[in-house]
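Example record used in the benchmark description.
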Amino acid sequence: MMEAYSRRVGPLMKSSTTLRYLYASS
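Model output (structure tokens):
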């Protein structure tokens, strides 16, 4: 269950964190 969850949310969290970082930088 957790495996499928992380597999589905993993990329989303990654891109979300990246966008947040870029937004905070600018």
